[in-house]
């Protein structure tokens, strides 16, 4: 074997070794951050079947691809994924309850959910893709729209993204596919927002209280997500 051949093999071995280390690092990062996709895929298959498992594996691949992407790309692709995978439906039709906050696994398994379920799923997997928790808030709003030629107002939830604490947020919504600045959504009036670290009232820039203490449904869904292998 020539010296050149030996050198080429050594370079190939180095590439393989580097790739293996990178793969182990990426897996370790996802798992250490609280996202056990292997467990999530197994539970999806056990509870909902092969299609749900396939959706989880597709989501895992997307999250992995987005790790080094800019936030704008992460927002666009995660928003699109869930808007396409989940059909809007009221809780009473999906769960037989008037108000139920589903985990992402439940929403993907049922392929249906309401505004809270869309927002929770986007929040969780944007964090998995590397978006800082400090930039994300689940936001309750009053949504105004025309229904049978009459102006109607109802409670609605969206996901808000803040590039900086002082930035105008971008709005991710299951009803409007395009991500837009909050000022462009004249149909929405914020009431309060929260993530797993704080709760904000109105347009306040400082958190007011602990969301898990004040929002029992948020506390409950966080517990279910931890059981599923999330958070």
Spans of at least 5 consecutive residues whose pLDDT stays below 50 are 1-9, 14-32
Mean pLDDT: 85
> What would you report as the Rg, rounded to the nearest angstrom?
20 Å
Task: Work out the helix count.
Answer: 9
Spatial shape? globular
Distance between the first and last residues' Cα = 52 Å
Determine the strand fraction and express it as a percent band: 15-25%
Helix content: 40-55%
Can you give keywords for this protein?
alpha+beta, 6-stranded antiparallel sheet, two-stranded parallel sheet, 8 strands, 19% strand, globular
Structure description:
The chain is an alpha+beta fold and 231 residues long. Helix content is 50%, strand content 19%. It has helices at residues 3-32, 37-48, 50-66, 71-85, 91-94, 104-110, 115-128, 211-214, 216-228; strands spanning 87-88, 112-113, 136-147, 150-161, 170-172, 180-181, 188-194, 199-201. A hairpin with a 4-residue loop joins strand 7 (188-194) and strand 8. The N and C termini lie far apart (52 Å). Residues 1-9 and 14-32 have low confidence and may be disordered.
């Amino acid at each position: 074997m020539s010296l050149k051949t030996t050198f080429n093999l050594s370079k190939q071995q180095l590439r393989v070794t580097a790739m293996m280390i990178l793969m182990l690092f990426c897996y370790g990062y996802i798992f250490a951050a609280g996202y056990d996709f292997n467990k999530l895929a197994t539970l999806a298959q056990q509870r909902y079947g092969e299609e749900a498992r396939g959706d989880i594996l597709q989501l895992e691949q997307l999250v992995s691809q987005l790790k080094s992407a800019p936030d704008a790309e992460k927002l666009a692709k995660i928003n699109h994924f869930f808007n396409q995978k989940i059909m809007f439906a009221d809780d009473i039709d999906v769960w037989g309850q008037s108000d139920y906050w589903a985990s992402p696994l439940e929403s993907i398994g049922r392929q249906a959910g309401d505004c809270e379920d869309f927002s929770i799923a986007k929040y969780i997997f944007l964090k998995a893709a590397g978006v800082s928790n400090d930039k994300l808030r689940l936001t309750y709003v009053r949504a105004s729209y025309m229904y049978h030629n009459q102006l109607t107002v109802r409670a609605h939830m969206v996901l808000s993204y803040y590039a900086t604490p002082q930035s105008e947020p971008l709005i991710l919504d299951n009803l409007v596919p395009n991500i837009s600045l909050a000022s462009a959504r004249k149909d929405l009036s914020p009431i309060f927002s929260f993530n797993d670290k704080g709760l904000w009232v109105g347009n306040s820039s400082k958190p007011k209280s602990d969301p898990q203490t004040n929002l029992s449904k948020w506390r409950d869904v966080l517990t279910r997500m931890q059981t599923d292998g999330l958070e």
